[in-house]
Amino acid sequence: MTNLLHIDTSIRYEGSVTREISSQFADVWRTVNPGGGYAYRDLHASPIPHHDGTDQGISADLIAEVDAADVILIGAPMYNFSIPSTLKAWIDRVATSEHFAREDGTFAWGGKRVVVVTARGGSYKPGTPREGFDFQEPYLRAVLSMVGLDHDLQFVHAELTLADVVPQMHQFRELAVESRADAHRVVKELASA
């Protein structure tokens, strides 16, 4: 049986692009894998306490969810060029030295598939003026690689989500619609694979 761990981190519910797109992935995945297991964690509704040197079993429960998952789906909006602090708190609990590379170079979590759905108010693609401001994908790639969750890692970006809201970005509204539609198309394909 295949298991999906679905993590949402957006502070928004209504109008959240990452919740919308990650939900579509989960729906398609569950249709394609009717006997598969599904675990859902909303880090905004139930935030993980920041690591303070105590554990209280919190880390063990989160690690058990990752252990049980074959596919990990993370909805991660870009906040201030990076990730939500709730996602960082989750990472601090699961990306521990016990999950670093073993002596033979393999990882306990090396065979898992990870899909990260992002929403970004602007565009951070190569060649754009804000390319160097993307601390979201490079950070997630780096931290996930420490624990072997980068071997089958895909990012799906919905960009220019503020084009309707910020008057200076109105000229990019069509590109925003295209980016969002493309993100929906890609998650359908990834969830069906």
TrEMBL record:
Task: Tell me the keywords, alphabetical order.
Answer: Flavoprotein, FMN, NAD, Oxidoreductase
Per UniProt, residues of the Flavodoxin-like fold domain are 3-162
Under the heading Pfam families, the entry gives: Flavodoxin_2
Binding annotation for FMN: 10, 78-81
Cofactor(s) needed for function? FMN
Catalyses which reaction(s): 2 a quinone + NADH + H(+) = 2 a 1,4-benzosemiquinone + NAD(+); N,N-dimethyl-1,4-phenylenediamine + anthranilate + 2 NAD(+) = 2-(4-dimethylaminophenyl)diazenylbenzoate + 2 NADH + 2 H(+)
HAMAP family assigned to the protein according to its UniProt record, in alphabetical order: Azoreductase_type1
- Describe the function of this protein: Also exhibits azoreductase activity. Catalyzes the reductive cleavage of the azo bond in aromatic azo compounds to the corresponding amines.
Put simply, this protein is called: FMN dependent NADH:quinone oxidoreductase
Query: Which organism is the protein's source?
Result: Lentzea miocenica
